[in-house]
Design a protein that fits this description.
With 505 residues, the protein is mostly beta strands. It has 5 helices and 21 strands.
Length: 505
Amino acid sequence: MKHSHWGISLFFFFTFAWTYGQQTDSLALKIKDNQDVIYQFRKSLYDNPAAYLNYRQYNLTSFDLSKEVSKKSTTLAQEGKNVERLFFRANAFNRLDEKSAVWGNASYNQGKRQNIQWNESADYELIFPYVVADSVGGDMKFENYEIQGGYVQQIGKYNIGVSGFYKAKLEYRNVDPRPKNLATQVGGSLGGSRNFDQNFSIGIQLEIEKYTQKHNMSFYSPTGFPVIYEMNGMGNFNNLLKGKRRQAFYDGWKYGTSFQIYETQQNKWFLTGGIHVFNFEKLLPEFYDVQASKAKDILYKLTAGKWFEFNTTTVGVLFYGSKQTRKGTENLFVNETTTNFIKIGQEERYRYEESQVQLSGVWKYQESRNEYSVWPFVGWTQQIERYAQPYSKTEVQSINFGVHAQWLHTFRNGSLLTVEPSLQQKQVQNEKAILTYGVSNAINQMLLDNYEVQIADYWMGSYKIKYDFALPGFVDAFVTGEYKYQHFDKLSKNSSILVSLGITF
């Protein structure tokens, strides 16, 4: 991973050199602009790099070092429990002139996730349900690297934008069983938009991404090791492939497109939508790279927003909807020898569907030294998971509602205080399950525990406070603290604390 360290270090150096001395706007103006809830309101526009010309009003670069400690007792078994991590981030946005801008960010974080069960792979949310698993599990250490950036240029009535990113993840354990996972994601996006007589603009964006993950398992104990399973979803696994196999390789491509239609000057109304497709396959190198399974994931998104300004008050309404479908296919084999398998067919056995609809509003009021914002929302979610043979199915429908708030106060010395409380609740409206149990009692118990988490009602609150202040010279500093608490009616609570120190210029 040394190349990632060098890439992030070079990003930090050039960002610092590039932005040195360019920031002449006051601290409060820059930070208030950066934290304006209106940008969050219209974030779907920025799927297109061509929209970044008006991403912010002021240039801003920030570096921060953060420590997060999470105490999580109620999670899916494959996600693990308590998490501790230390991370470093850098972000920059710079308008080069009235017709061009650049932006970028880089981050590194490391830590440990405890008590992961029935999952020895990385990126569970990307490759589920086709993980490598065993009955032992344990804690997992991780290191994550990310660097990305983009450029936008206006040419007449057209904006042309391009962006790219690279992500790398290393996960491992130093006691048996000893998985080592190396996952990478590299991709980019190309977008364009056209301004029609200053009234509205139309944009389109194309994206592509390459995903790989190498999984290797090792054991040092001379007394033996547990059975390794190639999981297929809802507690099922390939009985022919279970045993002592120690390697797996995930290979995938993601591609997609999106459109944006919006009011040109201030984006007071907009309509965006997109489709994203992710195909991946799971290969087993010890079987001459035989394909054990594959999946195709399709995500549709639609967002529409409108906001109004009345002197010092802004009011807006936002609609969001999405539909995700994941279909999993397993190959069927006969084995001539222990390492030579012949494919005799394939079956589409796994299917996951998730539908979401959310309606939210925003209210913002400004006065001389204070700015108040409130963001209420209500949403509906349906999750359906099924496995064809043996037949299993779960269906959960829930509503989510809550409110986020923000208060910005500017002191007479130019420093800025930000307070952000939030409260939300999930209520399950309907749930039903048909679970077919196998011969493994441990897997059956995992299924029951996971379903209990999925159908649990909870309320969750958070409180964040941030203080930005000036330092001698051109650099400003900030300190942030955030506490989150999640309370379940019948299960154990979750909580987390985050503390950050950083600089901006």
